[in-house]
Specification:
Blueprint lengths: L15 E4 L2 E4 L12 E4 L4 E5 L14 E5 L8 E3 L8
Antiparallel strand pairs: 1-2, 3-4, 4-5, 5-6
């Protein structure tokens, strides 16, 4: 489970992972949190985050994408090329 909104309607930056029937707290999402995003595991070492939004108004969209690498000393996301809107 990643991001979303809490009981006060604030965007959250938390992640939780299910492993062997138990949930564990994970890493924080970038930019103060996200909702309506897509987060996928690319392989054993990387997770990709794209789209969605954060803050108010609801779903103030972002065009930024990030990669997370498991096992790195830093606990940060690496920003990758931003998406472009084909309607521009």
């Amino acid at each position: 489970m990643t991001g979303g909104r809490d009981e006060t309607d604030a965007v959250t930056n938390s992640t939780e992972f299910l492993k062997k029937g138990f949930f564990f707290n994970g890493f924080e999402l970038p930019g103060g949190g996200a909702e309506g995003h897509c987060l996928i595991r690319l392989n054993d070492t990387h997770v990709f985050l794209s789209g969605g939004g954060s803050g108010k108004p609801r779903l103030s969209a972002t065009n930024t994408a990030y990669l997370w690498e498991f096992g790195r000393d830093e606990t940060t996301w690496q920003q990758v090329n931003s998406q472009t809107n084909s309607n521009d």
